Amino acid sequence: MRRVRIALLGCGHVGSGLVRLLARSRARLAASHGVTFELASVLVRDGERRREGVDPALVTTRVEDALSAAGDVVVELLGGIEPAWTLVRRALARGLPTVTANKALLAGHGRELFAAARGTPLGFEASVCGGVPIVRALRGGLAGDRVRSVTGVLNGTCNFVLTRMERDGTPFAEALRAAQEAGFAEADPALDIGGWDAAQKLVVLAALAFGEWVPLSGVRVRGIEDVTLERLARARERGRALRLVAAAERRGRRLELWVEPREVPADHPLAMVSREENAVLVRGDDVGELLFRGRGAGARPTATAVLADLCDVMRGAGEEAALRPAPALVAC
Amino acid sequence: MRRVRIALLGCGHVGSGLVRLLARSRARLAASHGVTFELASVLVRDGERRREGVDPALVTTRVEDALSAAGDVVVELLGGIEPAWTLVRRALARGLPTVTANKALLAGHGRELFAAARGTPLGFEASVCGGVPIVRALRGGLAGDRVRSVTGVLNGTCNFVLTRMERDGTPFAEALRAAQEAGFAEADPALDIGGWDAAQKLVVLAALAFGEWVPLSGVRVRGIEDVTLERLARARERGRALRLVAAAERRGRRLELWVEPREVPADHPLAMVSREENAVLVRGDDVGELLFRGRGAGARPTATAVLADLCDVMRGAGEEAALRPAPALVAC
Predict the structure, then answer these.
(1) Residue A261 contacts residue A222 (beta carbons within 8 Å)
(2) Nearest CA in chain A to B316
(3) Across the interface, do B144 and A327 touch by the CB < 8 Å criterion?
(4) Catalytic residue numbers of B?
(5) Which residue out of A18, A287, A319 would a mutagenesis test of the B interface target, given it has the greatest number of B Cβ atoms within 10 Å?
(6) B310: closest chain A residue by CA
């Protein structure tokens, strides 16, 4: 039995979900993977709060102590750029396998992050679309094809708000409040509503699909702030649904990335995406159109993606390739 | 640049598709993966037929010669049990990474095959659902969760026939002929129509999801032979669609596998699967319901899955883990 100690950075919504999932999965993972995960240390903002399943002796609020315990792997769930970026860089420099759910970090520093990870396993399945294994699909499964476009509904909060408005006639502000109460929304909901969360995820997907890190400033972004019940009703009358669509597509030699509210036919795969679900359509030269759909937000689905990466990291020699950046990314 | 020589076993529909895809992908794979694939030898049934892109000097009809050339990797696209099983076993015994699209072999000899592969990379993405990367999803992406059920439309021919009957009123025999002409159908269409092709794929998915190889004889199988235009019309009147549904689900401590024509509501994800598409719904404790949908049959999508496995096999040290059987399977 292999004992793996986790230096956990951040223990908010997803972090607490991971702690619970690890406890619940102990017997299963021991039987299937021959591994037990334990916490080595837990970096938090508020050291006073009690956290179920977390030994208070492991908790620290000092960033400089976050990697000092004997962790075998780092799980970064802080979100945002700092101190996440400093800590992840330090972990990778020490050769510590690292799992992150941090889309802002990837979108902001993806190229440097991948350069820093060279040779060290880096997992980031949880950074895009929560429980939907789209990162794996693009990293490995689609190596056999040339991707033409990636289109999706990538923000659970916006989709929750839009489908609540559309189906129940709930006003915007009230639908947003419901999303916040359900725990889908970002700490700053403007990131969701303004389309920036979707844009960050799109940058990650585009890097995997096309091997290019497009800066966030290169994404055309419009949010759902101005969407009214009237607009949704008019769309419905025409047999269409409104979704916050994010897309990356080749246009000749250029790569174009955009996020905006778009009407789609009612029987379009993206129209079927309801509440906090996410969906991604990948179109390849030979494979045609692939659809991936599932829960894109929430502590439980996202924690499963973190744990899947943790399992990959711990597969001995295999850890490298399983989590190594796609070759296209290494090359660029 | 790494030069990888393929011992190709079988050059029918999918094999020819792979040869064309390799030619088309040469520049892309050289740039992204630093690899060029070449044919070392090609085992075929009919040595007289000319095959585009295949040097006749590499072609053999002798099974005993199929692995004698200096191949770095074996791609088995023969289908059926023999001589595929003998050749794959021999390849694995020699430590040759092997990629197979052979669902019959996996369903019939999965446990022994995985035992034989121990330590040698074995890829089989193309064995289930053509271009849909469901094998990868279940092998790696869902390690973080406990799977409750796997449900899908796994046979493109049956789905093609059912949706043609349903939408155009095409009689059964004529719809089947169209599927055969389009190249989706198995050599023996009774395998498709009788539900056995779907059952074989289901056995593979269940092994990945639950770590148990259920023998084909343990799957309750009903095909679509008796489906009439009248039955489809009655279903449509009730707002339902008929699909050949395959499912593996836990019932207490038992694992239940079945394939049968079932009515699903018109807005159910499986009702949206049309023509030769496949779809798989995976339900997990924490992740909820995930949907994977795409082209499940046809030479081009299936060839992309073979090539994705080939790329994985060639990722140096990583090849082992990337293609190693899921830990649950190693354990069982």
Answers:
(1) yes
(2) A321
(3) no
(4) 201
(5) A287
(6) A144
Give the tens place of pLDDT for each residue, A216-237: 999 999 999 999 999 999 999 9
* Contact partners, residue B270, CB within 8 Å, separation at least 6: B151, B152, B153, B241, B243, B245, B264, B279, B281
For B234, the enclosing helix (H) or strand (E) is helix B229-237
What domains can you pick out in chain B, each with its CATH number? 2-130+300-331 (3.40.50.720), 136-296 (3.30.360.10)
Among residues B11, B9, B116, the alpha carbon closest in space to that of B66 is found at B9
Question: Among A30-34, A85-89, B237-241, B320-324, where is mean pLDDT lowest?
Answer: B320-324
**What is the CA A115 to chain-centroid distance, rounded?**
20
A103 catalytically annotated: no
In this complex, the residue of B288, B300, B320 whose CB is nearest that of residue A295 is: B288
Rounded Cα gap, residues A276 and A3, in angstroms: 35
Closest CA to B221 of B240, B242, B202, B249: B202
Residues from chain A that touch B319, judged by Cβ atoms under 8 A, are 321
Q: How far is A91 from chain B, CA to nearest CA, in Å?
A: 21
- Do A144 and B303 count as a contact with CB atoms less than 8 A apart? yes
pLDDT for A47 beyond 70: yes
Residues of chain B with pLDDT under 70: 316-332
Using CA atoms in the order A123, A128, A132, A134, what is the torsion angle rounded to 10 degrees?
A: -70
SS3 of residue B292 by DSSP: strand
Phi, psi of A57 (to 5 degrees): -65, -20
The pair of structure tokens assigned to A290 is 């692939």
pLDDT in tens, A58-80: 999 999 999 988 899 999 999 99
Single-letter residue type at B203: V
Whether A301 sits inside 8 A of B321 (CB atoms) is: no
Average pLDDT, chain A: 91
Nearest CA in chain B to A293: B291
pLDDT at residue A152 is higher than 70: yes
